[in-house]
Amino acid sequence: MPASNAPYPVLPGRRYPPGATVEDAGVNFSVYSRHATGAELLLYESATSPEPFQTIRLDPRTNHTFFSWHLMVEDLPPGTHYTWRLEGPNDPHGHGWRFDPSIELVDPWARAVNVAGWDRWQRQRKGVQPHDSPRAIVLAEEYDWEGDEPIRLSSEQMIIYELHVGGFTRHPSSGVRHPGTFLGLIEKIPYLKELGITHVELMPVMAFDEQDVPEPVWKAGLRNFWGYSSFGFFSPHPGFCVTPEQGTHRREFRDMVKALHRAGIGVILDVVFNHTSEGGAGGPTLTFKGFGNETFYCLDAIDKGIYLDFTGCGNTVNANHPLVTNFIIDALEYWVREMHVDGFRFDLASAMARDSDGRPLANPPVIWGIELSDTLAATKIIAEAWDAAGLYQVGTFPGYRWMEWNGRYRDSIRRFVRGDPGLVPEIATRISGSSDLYEANLRKPINSINFVTCHDGFTLWDLVSYNRKHNLANHEGNRDGTDDNLSWNCGTEGETPNLEVLTLRRRQARNLLTLLFLSQGIPMLLAGDEVLRSQQGNNNAWCQDNETGWLDWSLMERNAAMLRFVRGLIALRKRHPSLRHRHFLAGRPLPGGEIPDVVWHGLELEAPPWDDPESRILAFTLAPVCPDEALLHVMINMSDRALRFALPEIAPARWHLALDTARASPTDVVPPEDQCPVEDGRQLVRSRSILVLEGRSASDPSAIQPT
């Protein structure tokens, strides 16, 4: 860096593109601010430099065009850190303006940010101090993708695995060189590949504020672990990088993506565009509040000092303002074009379907803009189709290509498996792709992301071990997290040495996942559920960056039987295209077929108990989709007694036992080469269990080889 008496020369620069762009002549800087009256750019050697080595005041006559402030700094090297300061009117209640020239701002388009000098709680206690903000970094490194391209897998083939980058490898038992990082995740790719999943869905990896927690939580030594508090939408989170002080954010993230793609695994990002870490009126000014508060946030129509909060996090992004819509789509296209990601899951996506006054829009521009973007055309887009203010759009989320986290599926399966009666028609609809939600709107089973657990709520093991949440460790008085878990503890709350209870819990866990992977639509598995990870009844571990929130890799040995079961279950799904229809089942033969695509049964053939309010049983037969696929027959008994189900006779096939959730490992899931034929025309299905048969000619074992 130059001495203070030898500053870098400055040229007018240009307004496009926004952010910091390295060019032959230097670095072009540009930011949006409609109402700012003055601007300064501060340049630092590093994130910890106590003072900028150069402060450049922009001239409104030469460095201001339309709504942009811009300049070119000649010969400025990559690695330079920078912030902005803006002058302008401060009228939060009348116009929503919150300009404050004492606050340094993070460039919203920054490709990398560094938070080494940021202390949210000192800012809260002492007010703004000189140079106390996070800083952006100028990046220009070239990257060799070595021919990598995003994964192009048809949606019905997807098996999603939701994980937290930090929590996945931070436990000492992970044994990786760089725990809790993008590079640490690379070392666990062989495990993911052997499990059989096709995509990882990464909880937020865009730069977020780990200090964004309520004061009692912070005083307890906890922090924002999950990361639903973004402020740098173009930057990988520095906390997941090994050397963020060197600006290696993009390289480390790209290394992870490239390695996953080499293993045939796609990358979906959980993105948070519904709110930001700046919070409400009492939250800090980091970026958007200082550049254009009235543009980026939904504000009360009468008192613009009040932030409309449809997210439960203090503010709501004004996503359908033209500039904000463009910002969001620009960010998404950047992650696809420059970072090679394969899809996005949008947190509280229904908040993005509201206008600036909070009213739901029939055709929100940002939602349709994402759907129709050419750059995003082959990208998976998934909505959490609700928000925190009661807008619930599962089955009605705007657009056609959007997949949805199917909360109806989760709730129905949980209730059925815990033993609630009278759900048979509902369960048949969920298993067959939720046509009641999607078919009338010209959508398909692949619009449904099926899940029984996710990061938000009980883990699978806790779902069968607790009747109520146990969140006192979050230091919010056990008020946080849902009280409606639809769980069943199998007779005892929490940990127990009772072998009978533990055996039932393991069976219930197998039942839940078996239904998940036998359902039409796209299954999503929560990381750690395959080895029965517990959070000790905490159903909202958002601030638990500790063993509660981490994956303990010793569980792979301790619960090896469950891991084996899940691998076998995924393999079963993969060898049956009949579990992966793109179109809804019709009860008619497929083209060229002889038997209906699905036939529903009860204890007797073709007699499903649709009208029995006490029934807890269901069976169905799936016809093969292709000549080398086996028939599939499934019998589900969630009652508390063993029952005998009639088996259909479909010559020349013979039924072979593929899966029985009531059996102990290794006979609970049986690979094709080890399966035994079923001799009896009626099959005993034990209480609270599921039995799956594959039908094929005994003389043709190749008929069930994986497709």
UniProtKB/TrEMBL annotation:
Keyword Membrane: no
Keyword Transmembrane: no
GO terms under biological process: glycogen catabolic process
UniProt entry keywords in alphabetical sequence: Glycosidase, Hydrolase, Transit peptide
Stored SUPFAM superfamilies: (Trans)glycosidases (SSF51445), E set domains (SSF81296), Glycosyl hydrolase domain (SSF51011)
Family annotation (Pfam families): Alpha-amylase, CBM_48, ISOA1-3_C
Domain Glycosyl hydrolase family 13 catalytic: 162-573
Superkingdom per UniProt: Bacteria
MF (Gene Ontology): amylo-alpha-1,6-glucosidase activity; isoamylase activity
CDD domains: AmyAc_Glg_debranch, E_set_GDE_Isoamylase_N
Family that this chain belongs to: Belongs to the glycosyl hydrolase 13 family.
Full protein name: Glycogen debranching protein GlgX
Organism: Allochromatium humboldtianum
Organism ancestry: Bacteria, Pseudomonadati, Pseudomonadota, Gammaproteobacteria, Chromatiales
Gene: glgX
